[in-house]
Amino acid sequence: MNKDDLCRKDVEVKFTVALSSGDSNTPGSITEVEEQVKLKNWEKERLVEDIKREEDLLKQVKDSFSNQKQQLVDYITQSPAAKVRSQYRSILSETSAT
């Protein structure tokens, strides 16, 4: 073996050859792909906005539920005597207002 045999290797290189006018590297195809990318980006933006709106709505509903739950718990845990006093006060305030 000589020095040239050790340093030199044959490498097979293949290049693609366009056989038809429908090649993906034509300007028309590139423009088509760019339009598809723009459309997909637009769709993605709409979906992200929809998700944000849905998350905001879910948060509002959860907050409302939490408030109503707390009001119910407060009402249930009131002592019967406190309920009677509260009702008595409301009756008094109604009669004094008239």
Q: What share of the residues does DSSP label as strand, in percent? A: under 5%
Question: How would the global form be characterised?
Answer: rod-shaped
Task: Determine the mean pLDDT.
Answer: 82
What does the radius of gyration come to? 38 Å
Secondary structure tally: strands? 0
Q: What structural class is derived from the secondary structure elements?
A: mainly alpha
Spans of at least 5 consecutive residues whose pLDDT stays below 50 are none
Largest sheet: none
* Span between termini: 120 Å
Coiled coil: 44-71
Keywords: Coiled coil
Short description:
It is built from three helices and no strands.
Give an account of the 3D structure:
- This protein has 98 residues and is mainly α.
- The protein has a domain at 42-84.
- 76% of the residues lie in helices and 0% in strands.
- The chain has three helices and no strands.
- The mean pLDDT is 82.
